[in-house]
Write a structure and sequence with these properties.
Lipocalin; 16 strands; five-stranded mixed beta sheet; Double Stranded RNA Binding Domain; alpha+beta; 434 residues
Length: 434
Amino acid sequence: MRVPIAFRALLLSAPLSIVLSWHAFVYASPIQVDITGGSGAAKKAVSSAIEKSGLEIGVSDVRLRGTIDKHGRRLRIVLEVVTADGTVEKLVLHAKNERKLARAIRKKLWAKLGTSLKLATSNESVPPDTEIEDTGDISESAKGTPTWATDEPTKVAESNGEGENDLGEDDKRSPKPSPKMIEVQSSTEKVSEDSVQSSLTMTFGVGVFHRSLSFREDLFSQINGYEVPAAPVFQMQTKWFPSKELGLGNFFQHLGIGVEYEAPLGLDSTGTNDASFPTRAFAWNLSLQGRFALGGWAVGVHTGYGVRSFQVDDNAEGMRRPEIPNVEYEQLFAGASMRSPRFGPIGVSVQGGYNLILDSGAISGADWFPNSTANGGYARLGVDYSLSSVVAVYMATSVVQQGFDLGPEPGDDKIAAGAIDRYITGTLGLRYER
């Protein structure tokens, strides 16, 4: 069964309108974020804090520049708001490890540098070379006063957030001038570290594949169903957001492309007299991806084209394959996904969508059910555990289901009301994200 071109265009246009409308809404004066050092969690926390404030990250004259390094036994990040006129404001945070440093960034970055970032991106005048110092205890006279309003900097020792002075002996004898240091304790605030700033995500996994094809209301009880109880399967998924690499500008930084591939391995079908028949199955799709942050969640929308095939062939001895309809679905699809805020190293993702079947292959041909119509859907639930800032162990289960109205007519050789073709996979693998 073929679907008119107008319907295909309608399916594609709706998700694209959502993505483009969202970009038009959020596009504003950007901030360029340049962070060096560290393994990644702190960098993602900076991007998350900026995006949560509603400001756009991109190529700009306004930069949030940062360096992550060791400071004694602790990690330190030095953040500077830099405009074309020079450094406007500086913030320094410490923590015992990068995860706690990321929490400190999410808690303190916008509270301390938000005013300067807003003024800089709105092109208002901000005196350069202003320095912040904060031990987390602001006096009444200083509350609400812009950091550039005081002529003399206050000399405050750097605190480690645990009531101990973190200055070395040299610092005690001769307090250092600017830049002044801020020490904060890491926050327990749970904000997603699934940054929508990553440009490449790749997942590879192996697992178990199950397929079942069943018919309902088979009038003459002559149509064979089919089932693969369990078989090994290989899966691959890639998403690429090429704006930064290709220099496409801020508007396109949350638009990308996706590729997915699935291949069950070692399939074989058994017919009468236990005869064996070669069996082939695969699925692939290409998609346009959009993404944005919603609170602590990373939200995605996607639309594209794909093929799913399951074929049983005659065997090498010349025996005819079993009387089972082959399928090869050509389909347009559209859906959405969400990745949760992280619970420590653990993240959860969900995905779902609709398949518009353009063609079903032999099952909708003259030998089987030429008047049939089909549609389908898919869902996926995944859990990942971070091994580092770029690598995670990933476990997922997914279901793809196509439903048929077989449209039987009087005089047909095969009469059944409908059919369900269901595919279930469970996979375990690795995800790489940068």
